[in-house]
Design a protein that fits this description.
The complex is a heterodimer of chains A (151) and B (82). Chain A is mainly beta and 151 residues long. Helices cover 5% and strands 51% of the residues of chain A. Helices cover 26% and strands 16% of the residues of chain B. A three-stranded antiparallel sheet of chain B has the order 2-1-3, covered by helices on one side. In chain B, a hairpin with a 6-residue loop joins β1 and β2. Chain B starts with 15 loop residues before the first helix and ends in a 9-residue tail after the last strand. Classes of the chains: A mainly beta (151), B alpha+beta (82).
C-alpha cells in the first residue's frame, strides 16, 4: 500500500550553502497523470505540504478536454503574494512508483497563471495519503489513508 | 487522442524516473528556464518552449500527442525556490 519516490536531484553550479558542499539540490518531484474525458496530462509536480490545493495550469485542462465554463471558482495566494484564479474540476489522478499504482478522483484547481510546475497539495492529493519525507534517504513514502477511495 | 476519437492509453512510465536521474546536467543546460516535453522513457527531450503553450504548439507541429509526453520545467540552478 506504500509507494516510494526518490527525490529528483537538480544540478546546481554552486553548492547550496545549507547543503554542505553538494552539487545537487534534492526535490520531491513526482510524475503524476491526470486523466480527462479526451486525453491525459502527465507532468512532474512538486509535492508541497504547504499548499492547500492541487493546482495545474489551464493548458492541462484544455488537453484533458475539460470544460471549465461552469466550474467552481476559487483563488489562491502564492508565496510571492500573487493571487491565482482557480477553476476546479474533479479528475482522475494516477500515480505510480514503478511497482505500485494508485488512481483516485480528486479536485484539481486549474489556473490561467503561468506555472513552472504543477503543485501537489493537500486538497485532491495529500489528503488521501500519509506522507513520510525521509530527509536522510531523500525519499518520500506515500501510503493511502482512510480517506482514500480509489483503486 | 486517436483517430477514432477515443483517448489513447497513458504511456508506460515505468522507466521514466530512473532514466531522468541519469541525465547529466550538461544535457539539461540548453533548456534552463524552459518548459519541456520528455519522452515517456525519460531519455529524450522532444521539444521545449518559453511556456506550455509553445510546447503544445511544437508538439502539434511534430504530430506528437500532448498526452503521450511528460511535461516538465527545467529550473535554473542556484535559484532557491521558496
Amino acid at each position: 500500500m506504500t509507494m516510494l519516490f526518490r527525490y529528483r536531484l537538480l544540478p546546481v553550479s554552486r553548492p547550496p550553502v545549507a547543503l554542505g558542499g553538494r552539487w545537487v539540490r534534492p526535490k520531491p518531484l513526482i510524475t503524476t497523470s491526470l486523466i480527462g474525458p479526451t486525453n491525459t496530462w502527465i507532468s512532474d509536480g512538486l509535492l508541497d505540504t504547504g499548499a492547500d490545493d492541487t493546482v495545474f495550469s489551464e493548458d492541462a485542462a484544455d488537453v484533458l478536454g475539460l470544460d471549465l465554463t461552469n466550474a467552481r471558482r476559487g483563488s489562491g495566494l502564492g508565496l510571492g503574494l500573487a493571487t491565482l484564479s482557480l477553476r476546479f474540476a474533479e479528475v482522475t489522478i494516477r500515480l505510480t512508483d514503478g511497482r505500485e499504482q494508485r488512481e483516485w478522483l480528486g479536485w484539481v484547481g486549474f489556473t490561467p497563471t503561468k506555472l513552472r510546475r504543477s503543485i501537489l497539495g493537500f486538497g485532491g492529493f495529500l489528503q488521501f495519503f500519509t506522507a513520510t519525507f525521509h530527509g536522510d534517504r531523500e525519499q518520500v513514502e506515500l501510503t493511502t489513508n482512510s480517506f482514500y477511495r480509489g483503486k | 487522442m486517436t483517430a477514432n476519437g477515443k483517448p489513447q492509453h497513458p504511456p508506460d512510465l515505468s522507466h521514466y524516473h530512473e532514466n531522468r536521474l541519469k541525465i547529466p546536467a550538461d544535457r539539461l543546460a540548453p533548456y534552463i528556464g524552459l518548459h519541456v516535453a520528455w519522452s515517456p522513457d525519460g531519455c529524450t527531450i522532444l521539444t521545449s518552449g518559453e511556456d506550455v503553450q509553445s510546447v503544445l504548439r511544437h508538439l502539434k507541429e511534430a504530430g506528437i500527442d500532448p498526452g503521450q509526453v511528460v511535461h516538465d520545467y527545467i529550473e535554473a540552478p542556484d535559484i532557491v525556490q521558496l
